[in-house]
Design brief:
Blueprint: E1 4-11, E2 23-32, E3 37-41, E4 46-53, E5 56-60, E6 63-66, E7 71-75, E8 80-85, E9 92-99, H1 103-110, E10 118-120, H2 124-139, H3 147-160, H4 175-184, H5 193-200, H6 204-215, H7 219-237, H8 242-248, H9 254-265, H10 269-277
Antiparallel strand pairs: 1-2, 2-9, 3-8, 4-7, 4-9, 5-6, 5-8, 7-10
Helix pairs in contact: 2-3, 4-5, 7-8, 8-9
Amino acid sequence: MKILNYEEKWTRNNVLPNTNDAHLDELGVVHCDGHFKSFFKCRDYYYMHFIEKGNGKFVIDDVPFEGNAGDLLFFFPGVKVAYHDVPTAPWRFIWARFCGEIMASALEQIGITRKTPWVKIRKSEVLQMKLSELYQRLRQTTPDIFSPYSACWEILSLLRGHVKGNQPSPVLLPLLERAMRIIESPLTPLPNVKGLASQLGVGRVTIFRLFRDKLKITPGEFIDSVRFKRACLMLAKSNLRLTDIAGFCGLTSSQYFSNWFSQRAGCTPRSYRTKSRE
């Protein structure tokens, strides 16, 4: 049973990001009337609730949590959830649904894990204002292929600055995983091998050995495969100019990008864009 006075939301609509990357699926605002009840099992997504006002209870995999103003909870994939507010203090909350394989490790850096999904927010009124501003901005603009990614990381950055308590020390990820995150990040231009080595703080020889031993390909071949996937996605799903797409793909000019793409796709970028939309 869900009894609401008011609910609205932003959704990514037909924008289809790479499901391996962390991204925002939906962001919503809910005003309850004091008789809100919900129970379900989380599927393959991460579900955030930030309570702006009111009181109630959450039960996550049989573990109870209080849900009061200034509290934030995350439901992780696979957990069973039941929650309700109380008639004398109805909830008003902002919720968000995230997807992506690296969400768990990103949340862990903030201090939120499957076993510790409840956190108290520092300066909750500031977080409320920032989330509301993001929500309104998303609703007032047409979603593009970058919106789900950038909105996700904007929310995570906001949470990092407002979660109370001691934060865990950053976990030093294995070198290959760090390299692949840099390469596959949808928000930054693709690096070349020299740039990748510089960002990781190692030499080019180390990078070549790492990819050769672990993936049986060169780092340049891996970067090129990611570049081609990104180019195809941006041509099909965005209206960006070829110059902009070339930049995000780590190439120096639209002419170089066109020649590079044509060799791999068997057609020009403009032809590919036209065919993909037909």
